[in-house]
Amino acid sequence: MKLLSLNKKIFLILISSFLSTPLFSEDSVDIWKNKNLKKKEILIKTDDLSLEKKKTRINIKTKDSKETEIKSRNLNTSTSPIYGLYDPNENNLTLEMWTNSEGTRVKDTIDRINKIKLSSFSEKLFVNTLFTISKLPGQNMTDEEFINYKIEWLINNQKDKMISDFLNKNKNFPNKSRIIKYLVDKNIAKANLKEACKKITLIDSVVKDSYLDQFNVICLINENKKDEAQLLIDLIREQKLSNKFFNNKVNYLLGLSNKVDQKIDDSTLLNFYLSSISISDFNYKPNKQTSIKIWQYLASANLISINDFENNEQIKDLEIVANRSSLARSLVLEVYKNIKFSFNDLLNTDVVYLTLDPTKARALVYQKILLSDNVETKLKYLFLLNDLFKNDKLPKVFKNYLSKELKNLDSEKIPLEYQALVAENIIIERENKLGKIKYNDKSYHTSKVIKYYVENNITKKNIEKELLKVHKKLKKNKKYKISLKDVILLESLKADGFFIPKEINYENIIKNNLPPAEILNLIKNNEIGLASLRIVELVGEDSLIDLDHQTIYIINYLFEKAGLIKLRNNILITLLPDRAET
Which of 349, 369, 503, 581 stands 20 to 30 A from 479 (CA)? Predict the structure, then answer.
């Protein structure tokens, strides 16, 4: 993955939030790519920054901002409910981390983040921020809106373990039924009715939902508690929360009727499940419009087979669904395997596939792959089939299969012209395991000074002695220049109360690598939750270990100013020391 320059990221982010904050750069760092700027242009940008600071709506030095802060706090009464997963102290956060923020800005920032595929670092920071127990933003956000952002993220990202923890820690909250319905449907889709029925026990008298009530009836029938089921059915009907379809199916399951409606209803997973268990000769042909949950249920309940795909249109629908979900990818290849071709077709694949429609062309090439025993021939058709999928905008169908086949090849037999292409298409699950730290005195940040953050029971006195020792050694090296990583360590030590020798001068580096003024203003205004989200947005999809030194410095600086010391220390431990390869 090519990393976006920090300058480009910040520019895009600030434009999207209708803020324009010029940023400084240092020639030697070359992150902002401003080496060709004239001195006059730099002076103009500096003046613009000063003007922007005066104009910003988050100027904490003005009387108005103080009044706004007081009004914001007054809007959050002590009796307002609070929801979350983590104690604020776990990450140096507070109950008031949102109270000074305006709700619309918080919502807009979360909406933008939801469009980004977050790296593990960004996601962890996002989760710690959004799911820390806290009060609401000061204005323009209700309890229900705030909790909905949490619920939507949990469901959309299928964080089932977090959902379980959230339900355990928050007994009653707005739209609780949404989470329970998600869990119920997920287990029905797995054809695991027993587990789905367990989720119904999470319902209490506060939760009112006709879908869950109807499913509860099915659970009671399945557990042979027909009397209880009948009582619940009567209540549902009295409240007019059932329909003719549901009543017919339930009466049949209870043995109150010998006739059952043969209609298959796929409008909801529950109705589809009822259709499948009540119709004796159940026969349903899914298509590209069929929901993924129903596809999952059909596969899990063994209600779908290769023979269900009798023509090209049905196979095309299957291909489209497989590209949307990993559910049917293996089934696509099984269908390809069963399409009949002549011996002559397979012998002349290179010519014949060009005359076929896209689906049959892919099927022919796939069968050719299965018959190929020569590495070079196999590679030729593997990459041809991969291209055919890409041409029809179905890249995900073949991606994992291709990677698996390439991994199984004898690397010594791969022709030179294919080696780069093979390496590019093998999916590697990178584990960012940290090797053992190798201390050395070639720089401040690789010295034993870093032990203060890595190891326990290290005294300040010993660290200050070590710092002076390293400083004396580096001072003799006339070619040595302080790096941004050095500054990260030295600034952290200074903030933690250490004495830094006056001869170690890095003020110019700090001035030339200032963080975005907009985020600094959020921190100064004690909008720590929103500031943390903006850091998530800033880092985005980039892994922590892939970040350039300037980005690391800026994040570390922001964490420190925000009082997020545990997060700051994590960066120090992860990114500063030299480590042995794992």
Answer: 581
